[in-house]
Design goal:
It is built from five helices and seven strands. The chain has one domain: Gcn5-related N-acetyltransferase (GNAT) (Aminopeptidase, 3-Layer(aba) Sandwich), CATH 3.40.630.30. A hairpin with an 8-residue loop joins β2 and β3. The strands form two sheets. The protein has a four-stranded antiparallel sheet, sandwiched between helices. A three-stranded antiparallel sheet has the order 5-7-6. The chain binds coenzyme A. The site of coenzyme A has 17 residues, from β4, α4 and α5.
Amino acid sequence: MTQETTIQLLAPALDLKAAYRECEAEFNAHGEAFLGVGAADWPAYVKQCDEEAQGIVRDPARVPQTVLLLARVAPHTPDAPQRVTLLGVAKLRHYLTPTLEDIGGHIGYSIRPSERGKGYGTLILALTLDRARELGLSRVLLTCDSENVRSALVIVRNGGVLTSEGYSPLRGARVSRYWIAL
Ligand SMILES: CC(C)(COP(=O)(O)OP(=O)(O)OC[C@H]1O[C@@H](n2cnc3c(N)ncnc32)[C@H](O)[C@@H]1OP(=O)(O)O)[C@@H](O)C(=O)NCCC(=O)NCCS
């Protein structure tokens, strides 16, 4: 049976270190961060993600979150080993704080620069909404800078309804807030 390349969500795992590094380098070359400095110690980051996904947070300022990596997985063949290419990340916050109600919301996401404009932003949000349903959430808040037209399209395509818009002093920009019923 021929196995096909798949696009799927993966949790950060020790064996994704090389894929993480390759993707982070591309973000950094574009002046952006993929997973941020905290992921430089990959084993510690994997452990933290694993704990937080289970609701364990060690920093009282943080809410539990599930980190989801969008990955293209090419199967193992007789000529080549399995190859994982990371395409982006979504972070699903399990509940809101006053700050997250202003900016951040339940879900944040980013697609690597070379893979933008191919539908992956729309896909990663759709797949993350499935995870939010599994967590038992009945609706989720998404926020984006009002000028971020691509992100707004991703949200609206996934059922987002614009509920407020205005200047956020925390963000230093105009922010649009959308709710998605699950
Ligand atoms: C926002 C982001 C996730 C969108 O990801 P993406 O993979 O490009 O999204 P999609 O391919 O699903 O495209 C969504 C829409 O954006 C628009 N878009 C995509 N690429 C575009 C481009 N090069 N020029 C203009 N518009 C574009 C299109 O209207 C597209 O809809 P279409 O399929 O009808 O053309 C991505 O641009 C990104 O990671 N940006 C940086 C981080 C960020 O802004 N995150 C969101 C914070 S709220």
